[in-house]
Design a protein that fits this description.
Blueprint lengths: L5 E11 L1 H11 L3 E3 L5 E9 L4 H7 L4 E10 L7 E10 L2 E10 L3 H6 L12 H16 L3 E15 L2 E15 L12 E2 L6 E7 L5 H9 L9 H10 L12
Antiparallel strand pairs: 1-6, 1-10, 2-7, 3-4, 3-7, 4-5, 5-6, 7-8, 8-9, 8-10
């Protein structure tokens, strides 16, 4: 299973306690397998405007919302890949496009709004994503606001690799020293659950998965890591938005 560059799917979250996590992992045995990366530390650097326009629009439950982040799998070395990601959600459908570059190019790429990549022979698809990122930086004054880190285990269905389930643990953040290469240390957030299970599907759930969800009495929830960090830690000017877990 390689790392895809373009996604169109629906994503559903379930917020699990320790017992629920243990139970569902047992029941998924035989239906799903871990991907080749196993337990992975994911670092995500979220960008926003000075007024936090992007996350506030998301909290307001707009029918269209987007975000920009830079993601690495583990603490990156200069030659390691990082991913510039645009993630949009339109009427419940998630569209994600990402551009892979070596970590050593991240600083000049952001400083030039991707112009420095013009001298590289990008594929047509990658250049289109580069143009979208350039457009985004032209529309908004974006800067890194939070580095959010967690551990993740990803599973894929044995009979359909596009049906995926991920489990995220130990979510933490920092709003200073926003450099991916400095690792994933930070303040651990404390939501009222242990594990974030996210189901990524291009269509309906398989029957076997629907049965597992029903037998465990699991219900869909809403949770945004960046949204939670903004509401509970970054929004120092006031707590007017802190009404739900987003």
């Amino acid at each position: 299973m390689g790392l895809k560059q373009v996604f169109k799917r629906r994503e559903y979250k379930y917020l699990l306690n320790a017992e629920e996590y243990t139970n569902i992992r047992k029941l998924l045995t035989g239906y799903m397998s871990e991907d080749q990366y196993g337990l992975t530390t994911i670092l995500s650097l979220y960008f926003d405007t000075p007024q936090y326009y992007i996350i506030n629009r998301s909290i307001e439950k707009a029918s269209y919302k987007s975000k920009f982040r830079v993601r690495s799998y583990g603490t990156p070395l200069p030659d390691d890949p990082v991913f510039l990601e645009i993630k949009k959600k339109i009427d419940g459908v998630v569209y994600k496009r990402r551009l892979e570059i070596p970590y050593e190019l991240l600083e000049p790429t952001l400083a030039t709004k991707t112009d420095c990549l013009e001298k590289y022979q990008l594929t047509v698809a990658d250049n289109q994503i580069r143009q979208e990122i350039k457009w985004l930086f032209g529309c908004y004054t974006l800067a890194p606001k939070a580095l959010i880190t967690d551990e993740r285990v990803a599973l894929f269905a044995n009979d359909d690799p596009d049906f995926r389930v991920t489990f995220d643990f130990n979510v933490r953040f920092r709003d200073n020293d926003l450099i991916l290469g400095h690792g994933g240390n930070g303040t651990k957030i404390k939501p009222p659950f242990e594990t974030i299970m996210e189901v990524k599907a291009t269509g309906a759930y398989p029957i076997w998965f629907s049965n597992i969800i029903a037998n465990l009495h699991l219900v869909k929830g809403r949770f945004s890591k960046y949204g939670y960090v903004y509401q509970h830690y970054l929004n120092k000017a006031g707590k007017k938005h802190v009404t739900t877990i987003v």
